[in-house]
Amino acid sequence: MDYTNRNTTRMTITLRLKQPPVVPLEAEVLSPNAMADLSNSEIRSLIVYHGKRQVPLDEFFDVDGERSDDLIIHGELNKVRWIGRAMSRGRITVHGSVGMHLGAYMTGGRIEIHGDASDWMGAEMKNGFIHVHGNAGGQIGAAYRGTLAGMKNGTIIVDGSAGLEVGMRMRRGTIILGGPAKDFAGLQMKGGTIILLSGAEIRTGAWMNRGTIISMKPLQMMPTFAYANDFNPTFANVYAKQLKQIGIDLPFARSEGVYQRYAGDLSVPGKGEILVWQPA
Q1: Sign for the pseudo-dihedral over CA of 191, 113, 139, 206
Q2: Bridge-partner residues for 157, per DSSP?
Q3: C-alpha span between 198 and 276 (Å, rounded)
Q4: Distances from the Cα of 279 to the Cαs of 123, 195, 230, 275, in angstroms?
């Protein structure tokens, strides 16, 4: 699937962090939506928030290029927040780690991070594609506090580990974790799919209503999940074909093993499911 809406001239805007901010830098203007139609001087004049100060973007970034929806950002951006907020088009590539709220409210486009990401990545996103080649924090694709629904569509891939409450209240979409997740993966999940290639800690699927969690490693199941059956679901074959295109192998053939299906969370009561792979 190609979630990218790239500029036909393939021009890029390259930003390089001059100095790390002392306090978190609120920089939601680091988005194709904000920059695609602007000249270089207009981009450099965009306002970011450094604590209580409103400052131009070029106080923190060198900017090369203009009028493009393809952004390349260099630097350790651990304290830079809201990159790609609500973006609907284009591409962001970051060479370095990023701060909180990456791709929050995203509706389209593609984000690729060659580093780590912090908490609330892809929070309440509606569509798009995010790929983090390092580790990520908690609340990936989750609903913000007081909001009923998390991500509603799109795909998030984390090559490494993740923090607490991955996919909390997510309604649709797919989250794939290469490394282990911490507690409460799929908390209050309402739909969608979470694939755990390296398993998770405790309380996986707590209070989930609907949706599917697939784990390639054994899980410590909550007592409110009931074993249902062993099977090889047809949708696993469909997922396997899609994921193979991005280098992820998801087993599905009966000769390779079976999935143990657990229904729950029965304390809600919920109609979700957790599938745990049992190799042959």
Answers
A1: positive
A2: 131, 176
A3: 11
A4: 33, 16, 12, 13
Q: 204: Cβ–Cβ under 8 A, 6 or more apart, which residues?
A: 181, 184, 185, 186, 196, 213, 215, 219, 220, 221, 222, 274
Which tens digits make up the pLDDT trace of 63-101? 999 999 999 999 999 999 999 999 999 999 999 999 999
Q: How many other C-beta atoms lie within 10 A of the C-beta of residue 78?
A: 18
SS3 content of the chain, % helix, strand, coil (to 5): 10, 30, 60
Q: Which residue has the tokens 């984390």?
A: 158
For the CA atoms of the chain, what is the radius of gyration? 20
pTM over 0.70: yes
pLDDT tens track for 190-212: 999 999 999 999 999 999 999 99
- Does the pLDDT of residue 239 top 90, yes or no? no
H helix runs in the chain, sequence order:
32-35, 40-44, 234-244
Structure-derived torsion over alpha carbons of residues 208, 209, 211, 214, reported in degrees to the nearest 10: 30
